[in-house]
Every structure is written in C-alpha cells, then in structure tokens.
Amino acid sequence: MQQAVDQAAFSLASLERFCREVFSACGANDATADAATRAMMHGTRYGVDSHGVRLLAHYVTALVGGRVNKTPNLKAVRSFGAIETLDADDAHGALAAYTAMDRAIALSDQFGIGAVAIRNSSHFAAAGAYALEAARQGRIGIAVCNSDSFVRLHDGAMRFHGTNPISVGVPTTDENPWLLDMATSSIPYNRVLLYRSLGVELPQGTASDLNGVDTRDAEAVEMLAPLGGEFGFKGAALAGFAEILSAVLTGMKLSFDIAPMGGPDFSTPRGMGAFVLAIKPEAFIERDVFDAGMTRYLETLRNSPAREGCTVMAPGDREWRVAEEREKSGVTIDPVTWQSFGEMAEKYGVTLPA
C-alpha cells in the first residue's frame, strides 16, 4: 500500500468513483452519496486538500454510526419572501448546503436575492463548493457555517470559535469566477490533521498548545489562532459573524456547544447550522454593466505591479491553476488517507482508485 501511494498519482475520475461507491456501499442514499462526493472532489480538485477526499473515512464513520442521516428528508420549515429556513434532518452537510443554495438561487430568480438558513446539518466540507455553485449559475454566492470550538480568541487561551469559514463566489465573463474561500482561523483544523499525517511543521503563529502558547508542532496543537496574527481580533470578529448567521439566526448550537468533529461520539447528530445567500446582479444593475465592471476590476488587479519575486493573483486563481494541473496529472494521496482507502475498499468490496 505504501509503495503504491508513493509512486502514483490518482485520476480525479477514479477518486470520484471510489468515494461515491464507498458512500453507497455503507448505506447512504444516492442524493447523499452524490453531494458528499461532489463536495469532497471540489476540495481535491482545487487544492483544498484538508477538505478533500481525506474526509471520506470520517464521513463514512459518521454515516454508519448514526451521527449523519443516510436517508434524510430535507424540507423548508419557514419562509418569508426571499427567505427560507431549511431543516436538513441531520443530513450530510454537503447535501444540506447544495440543497439550500439551489433554493437560494431559485429565490433570487423571483426576488433578486435568496437567503436560506440551514438547521440540523453536519460538517459540509469546503464552503467554497457552494459559493462556486452560485457563481457558475451567474449569481453572487455566499456560504458560511460554524463548527466545533478549536480557535482561541485574540489574546485568548481557550477554544472558543470553530474555524467558521466564509466563502464568496462572483460570476465573471471568463470561465472561472472570483472565488474567496477562507477559514476565519489562521488555518483550518483539517490542515493540522493533514500536516500530522505528512510530518510537516505548521507555519509560525498559526496554532497554540494547551496553554495558548504558539507551537509549530502539529502533534502539540490544542487550538488554532484567529486569522490576522497580531491583529487577530479581526479574524475573531469575522468568526463571530459566521457564528451569528449559522447558529444564532438558525437556533442551532454555538461552536462551544457542538460535539467534537473527531468524536468519540459518532452516534448523536451534532445539530449544526449554516447559511447561504444568492444575489442576482441584474436585479441591481444591467448585466452588461456588472460584467464590464468585473472584467475591468480583474484585469487591473492581475496586471498590477507585483513585489520582486511575487505574483499578483485574484481570489480563485490559485485554485484554477491547481485544477488544471490535477486534471492533467492526477492527485497524490497522503499515507494516512491511502491506508484508510485500503481498509474501506476491503470492507465494502470497492476497487481502489487508479
């Protein structure tokens, strides 16, 4: 197994096939298998590896254990004009978020804007998957969620917020949108797990030990720092923004009340919330004016002077380059993830990726 992962790059198509087949084999319905696979492949395709296929084993554990509903009945439980609240029935977070964004896009057709709050959901992988979905359909898309506490406050020494991501996708006349996808922590916790697997040191100032003291040792990490370094109060406030929309506005659990993602309890639903928004630009201004503005903005941005040895990029540019390379050359898999693939392949009778 180790030899295989060290010497091979796996095609995106084979990884997608493997993930979907494993989800189906563990009892997830088609909608869940499709949405969860699609969200993980977004992470793997665009280089957000902390939220890519390495999450497969975790998601299977949650589905089999009962934390996540294999056959949920998602339904709108409140509506008011362009606003809806979706009860996800403890669905996989990807199914909940894709369903909510589809509904927000439909509402934006009618009202120019659509906002959907999500109740009774679970971990939804990379927030950018849902903002990108809206942007691909010509909308400005926003997606946020909160998660279990793992990020200290600025100058704090205890876990308070989750990594609480914020994502915004904006359509352009080019194939690829403007895409922001950021944790409000210095780095996402899943990146700590990835670095542990790879035996790589963390960047300075991104994480702390049990006493709130900075550490670069991924094995010693007990909490993350908020985004912003010496000005981390800004990242902490952004985390609070995501917290309010995801938990307070939905009546779901605050970060410090959510059960830890890593268990040990995988039988009890986590009661997580999230929030998505879709905006139809032509409801505000003529579409050609909006498109021209985005084109001029991005052209000026990309052609602006760079510091020596650096390159200026728009949000999303790195992801598009990674995707192009991975479509052509495939993806390498870290040893821990590959080992979990082997275990799931044997357990469920599914052929490994190639």
TrEMBL record:
It is an enzyme of class 1 (oxidoreductase). Keywords: Oxidoreductase. SUPFAM superfamilies: L-sulfolactate dehydrogenase-like. It comes from the Bacteria. Its EC number is 1.1.1.154. The keyword Oxidoreductase applies. One of its GO terms (molecular function) is ureidoglycolate dehydrogenase activity. Belongs to the LDH2/MDH2 oxidoreductase family. This is Ureidoglycolate dehydrogenase. It comes from Ochrobactrum soli. The lineage of its organism: Bacteria, Pseudomonadati, Pseudomonadota, Alphaproteobacteria, Hyphomicrobiales.
